[in-house]
Design brief:
Elements lengths: L4 E13 L2 E7 L13 E5 L6 H4 E5 L9 E7 L5 H9 L5 E8 L12 E6 L4 H13 L5 E7 L2 H4 L3 H10 L4 E6 L9 H7 L1 H10 L1
Parallel strand pairs: 7-8, 8-9
Antiparallel strand pairs: 1-2, 1-6, 2-5, 3-4, 3-6
Length: about 210
């Protein structure tokens, strides 16, 4: 079966952190672009001659919607040709070509189970999509998020939305680890060890 490529239009770009940007693209056509929360697409960027030099995969950072809009959360890597191209060359109105969706890292069919999400930095993208999907579908199972990065003041990605989820009760528990905010480095695994007994109970019930 031939691969389908989509020429999506960049509708918005915003800064989420000093080296992190959010990119929104609109998939063309009247037919709904079908994907599951947690999946990714592969972009064909003009950064090399060979396929493996040009292709970059990015997780979709939002749940499916009727607007055919996809969001990507991208960190600018010092030696990353793909992220440098997105940051330095792409503006609203430009076209990004991609194929997909792909990936089997998706939510379980039974959504009333306890779920624990563990991520750092822009790795939050698929987990944010999971949480949006569970909110949209009214999933009743508890949600626990472990999130880590360097500094709370600058690197707490999706801060407002995550705090709103905590306040509404959609996010049952939130544990954060910002490694540069204190003399002793604290990482996500530190928080997991500190919550080991509760975490084990959630895993048993999930």
């Amino acid at each position: 079966m031939p691969t389908t490529w989509y020429d999506s239009k960049v509708t918005q770009i915003s800064s989420e952190a000093p080296n992190v940007r959010r990119f929104w693209v609109e998939v063309p056509g009247d037919e709904r672009f079908s994907f599951q929360a947690g999946q990714f697409v592969t972009m064909d960027l003009p950064i090399g001659e060979k396929r493996l030099q040009r292709w970059r995969s990015y997780s979709i950072a939002n749940a499916p919607n009727d607007a055919n809009l996809l969001e990507f959360c991208v960190v600018k890597a010092e030696h990353g040709a793909g992220s440098r191209y997105l940051f330095d060359e792409i503006a609203p109105g430009d076209i990004l070509r991609f194929k997909g969706p792909d990936g089997a890292f998706v939510l379980p069919q039974t959504l009333d189970k306890d779920l624990v999400f563990i991520c750092t930095g822009t790795g939050i993208a698929p987990f944010r999509a999971f949480l949006e999907e569970r909110a949209a579908t009214g999933a009743t199972g508890p949600n626990w998020l472990f999130f880590g990065d360097q500094k709370r003041s600058t690197d707490f990605l999706y801060h407002d939305q995550i705090i709103a989820w905590v306040q509404s009760g959609h996010l049952t528990r939130l544990d954060t680890a910002f490694s540069r905010d204190q003399e002793e480095k604290i990482y996500v695994q530190t928080r997991m060890l500190q919550a080991a007994s509760e975490l084990w109970q959630w895993l048993q019930e999930g």
